[in-house]
Amino acid sequence: MIPVTSFAGKTVAVFGLGGSGLASCDALKAGGAEVIAADDNAENVAKAAQAGFITADLRTVSWDSFAALVLAPGVPLTHPVPHWSVLKAREAGVEVIGDIELFCRERRRHAPNAPFVAITGTNGKSTTTALIAHLTKVAGYDTQMGGNIGTAILSLEPPRTGRVHVIEMSSYQIDLTPSLDPSVGILLNVSEDHIDRHGTIEHYAEVKERLVANVQAGGTSIVGVDDGYCRDIADRLDRAGRNVVRISVKNPLASGIHVEHGTIVRTSGGARSEIATLGGIGSLRGLHNAQNAACAAAAALAMGISLDVLQNGLRSFPGLAHRMEQVGRRGNVLFVNDSKGTNADATAHALSSFSEIFWIAGGKPKAGGITSLTGFFPRIRKAYLIGEAAQEFSSTLGSVAHEISQTLDVAVEQAARDAEASGLTDAVVLLSPACASFDQYRNFEIRGTKFRELVQALPGVKPVV
């Protein structure tokens, strides 16, 4: 835990009592603050009270004594309308911040030079965060990983020399961190997402920009420049005198880091050097993972990690659970768990990575279905459709070979049988549902774990090494 000493002797309201909210309560109390905990969900309030925190209805109490409102990132700050607790705080002149802001203040107070790597982007941020954490561990750092990727930041160990915090940040979290100042900031990409919470894509991009615009003095801003929003952001950072490293997997760069034919290349002032190769690294297959790896490599170089350590770290990266996770092989058939592919855009990355696909898809459908994936249909040998989306996906697939399997266990059995019978040397059974899991599973992790268990129970399946 990271005790929050910056509010010692003061009273702080915490609204939103999920994992990060309760961690904030613990950290504030450990640092000497009095905490008033609240939530719109009565069960969460009861859990906080059971944990020993003072709870209250923030609609009825006086805000005069509150030094801050610590808001959970899932609670609307601006759009579609500010949450009522935000309006109450503004009326009282009380600052509204999040748990990562508390971390930033503690780091500045106690270990301002401790490395802090923050990662954001519409797509790829979890894989990039996990990869950077892996690289820093291989390099010998005491590595603390958390934020949006799972562990609440205040549940990690405190900043200190030799310890690096590798933190994934959503746009919601950035919005609640006004003094965000990582030593290395990474913006992977920007595409339309979370417009309901930011109003416009321009505002969404502006929030993302803050992470790389506010790196501390001497720090490094790493920006993927394969979309227009990020190219403009990189140009603005350049004009502001920031140390910017541009990343591309689509075009060579005169200055920056790009990927050509599976090799990560650094260019500067006309000089060109090869940093690392990605060939044969199954956990980093595909163009999207090439971008993740190039950004992670740039972060490693910014931290002084050697090229040998970088290459070894890339090769030994096991991948992120449920994201292009290789869970087994039987003969020529590879089984890949991409349960985190919960929409068509995410599934496009998976489909683009293989050419002989036995595709398991379906679940709770999202707007647009899989119509955007038609360009990948020639790669699909056969599809196996599950859940609520099965009939809709069947109509979209049209003449593409497919059957409605209904459940995951049936789909795995059918896909494994057909892939093996095909005789193809590069057959892949791919779970990348392009759907939410909520019709049959509580979350994508449970769905992916079930897939892994089903595959590994098949006769003759061996782990991928």
Structural class: alpha/beta
What is the mean pLDDT? 95
Distance between the amino and carboxyl termini: 35 Å
Assign an overall shape: globular
Widest sheet: strand ordering? 7-8-6-9-10-11-12-13-14
Rg over C-alpha atoms, rounded to the nearest angstrom: 23 Å
Give a short summary of the structure.
This protein is α/β, with parallel strands linked by helices and 465 residues long.
Describe the 3D structure.
The structure is a single chain. This protein is α/β, with parallel strands linked by helices. Helix content is 34%, strand content 23%. The protein has 15 helices and 20 strands. It has helices at 19-30, 42-50, 84-92, 99-110, 125-138, 171-175, 195-198, 201-213, 228-239, 287-302, 307-316, 344-351, 390-397, 408-422, 444-456, and strands at 11-15, 34-38, 54-55, 66-71, 95-97, 116-120, 142-147, 163-168, 184-187, 220-224, 244-248, 256-260, 263-268, 271-277, 325-330, 333-337, 356-362, 380-386, 402-406, 427-431. The strands form three sheets. The protein has a nine-stranded mixed β-sheet with strand order 7-8-6-9-10-11-12-13-14, sandwiched between helices. Strand 10 (220-224), helix 9 and strand 11 form a beta-alpha-beta unit. Helix 5 (125-138) crosses helix 11 (307-316). The longest helix has 16 residues, at 287-302. The chain is globular and about 70 Å long. The two termini are 35 Å apart. The relative contact order is 0.08. The model has no long low-confidence stretch (mean pLDDT 95).
